[in-house]
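Budget justification, computational time. The allocation requested in the original proposal was used primarily to generate structure tokens for proteins on the priority list. As evidence of use, we reproduce two of the resulting records. The first is shown immediately below.
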Amino acid sequence: MKISRRVLLTAVSAIFASQVFSLSGALAAGKGVYAKFVTTEGTFTARLFDKQAPKTVANFVGLAEGTKEWKNPKTGATEKGKPFYNGLIFHRVIEGFMLQGGCPLGMGYGGPGYQFADEFNPELRHSKPGILSMANSGPNTNGSQFFVTLAPTPHLDNKHSVFGEVVEGMDVVKKIGSTRTGPNDRPVKPIVMKQVIIERR
């Protein structure tokens, strides 16, 4: 049976569109998606890889904008309409390696009350400083915690899902990365994410 090229392209386009929008309804089509991290140490901005890691980016954007439901580990209540990351800290910083945040408890073992599968892409690697990637406790245990690399970390490839890259304010990332820490690599002076703002441009 022959299928015209036009019909085939239309069908493929429809399937692709339904997959993209079902996975990333929180994203706007046709624009680059960026996350601006306004911290107590300054501001840095990351480009999010919404095409290569749609599930992971949709999760991060949904939490950041407050459009995705999550379970508050402090109260057990379901939250929605409240930006998740605002006010959280970078609870773990290892100089020359990475800085980690996104725990609602600020201790490193909290999350949004759900987990989702790893999303690996051969184009996305922990190849340099400034890579955003999901923290996890094993395969398919992603939630809300993420880290930003301070150096190439290829041993994390295919173990942690890369979903962005810092494009502005790498000096701020380095400043946070050199902060003084205490037990469990916790910064002595709290480093707060005052706001995580999603931009489409």
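The second record produced under the same allocation is shown here.
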Amino acid sequence: MNRDVRDDFQGDRLFLKKMNELGLEVIDFGFFRENVIWIKTKQGKFVLKGFSRSETCNKQLKLSKLYHGQKQRIMGTYTSYPNQKKTVQFGKYIWAIMPFYKGEGLHFGNKDDVKAGVEAISRFHSFSKNIPLPLYEQLSSYSLFKKWSDRLDAFKFHARSANWNHQMRPLISEIIMWGEWSLNHFDHEAVEKLENKAYKKKEITHGDVAPHNFVKYKEKDTYLIDFDLFAAVPQAFDWLQYANRILPFWHWSYETMEEVGNEDFLKWFTKRWFVISLVFPTDLYREWNRALKTGDKEMIDAVTRFTLRDFSHRKKFIEKIMKRMS
């Protein structure tokens, strides 16, 4: 891991000294991100996560405690330093520690991996209803309609000044039209009912069911990691995001969803609001907003390939929905 990615880190010597004070003899370390470090020690391998606010750190530790010790792992959880402290202040962050979980992320082009992800989300949702009310009330919530409206507005803003290549230029108006159609047909009443029901049942979402936030160890259980985007919103929003992430790998085929899904997942495809929401190209907006904001050529090329790869299949899928719902 390239140590040069760190920003304002206080040097190897001070870091190693601090780890030693905590009872960890570090052999090697590196950075995933500025505030996420892996360390190899004589006691084993760990991941340190840095928080700029103690409130955020404490909330994540409380959430972690809820999932700790489950016989069938549901979430990767934090642990203590050898001196039994949960956190340590170093540099500009408060650092919590978790084991380095063995395993791989999921590959959404593999049906077994997609099924494993479905089961992991179901287990997470089922257990998460046990969250104590005081902790549940600390979680943030959001309006899906507003979140998506903001994302579409950001894409329109970036798209105006973007230097589109000859392949992308003809597609932009259609990509924008899909988002506008989905928001214009958004079933506010159904989603509001869903949100009220979810609050009464204390439903929470993981919020980022991307392939790298799953851990699959050999052929054993698959579980989720990362507490960053937990929210007090309907669990259906996790399923909507999961569908949006896996459909591009399977030519936008509902038949494939039937093969890989369970009842928790597939029941949402019968709901009008959910099907209309599948038209909204949130993945394209998310990736393009990030790429166009940075102006990074490699990132722009990668998102271009991602967009073009399944565009015709996505278009057929969307047109079918539009025809059915209009």
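A brief technical remark on that second record: The two ends are 51 Å apart (CA to CA).
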